[in-house]
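hey can u check if this looks right to u? its 153 residues, i copy pasted from the old doc so theres a chance i mangled smth
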Amino acid sequence: MAMTASGRRIRKRRLKADINVVPYIDVMLVLLIIFMVTAPLLNLGVDVKLPQVAAATVEQPKQQVVVQLAQDGSLALIQRDGQGETSKLALDEAELIARVGAFRTQDPNLTVFLAADGAVPYEDVLRMLQRLRTEAMVDKATLLTRSPEPAAR
């Protein structure tokens, strides 16, 4: 054994090269339990498959009146007369209701189609349908839709 000038012995210790993994295992088990408990709770929504229906075709009247509601809220009145000529006129809401009301007084069986962009809030679409039915007195106001695309094989 080696001695120093002061007379103490110097022990040569071997370095311990082991890593204590027990705390890491504990942490991993706690994380595993946390993830196992929270994983089922992450699915907040319910998967709903909305039905696609092929709507029955509506009999095409001689005079067609379509109210177009764009994504930015602008309104347009699209008319097709008996000869097949189409005209599109951009109007504000009050003028549009007044014009549709005038068409309704000429033809009591007038059907008005509301063509709203898909990004328009549902509340705005319903409000426009309500105004057409109450203020313009249109009994037959309906939404204009597109048939679903056939599934690709």
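Residues 126 and 140 are 14 Å apart (CA to CA).
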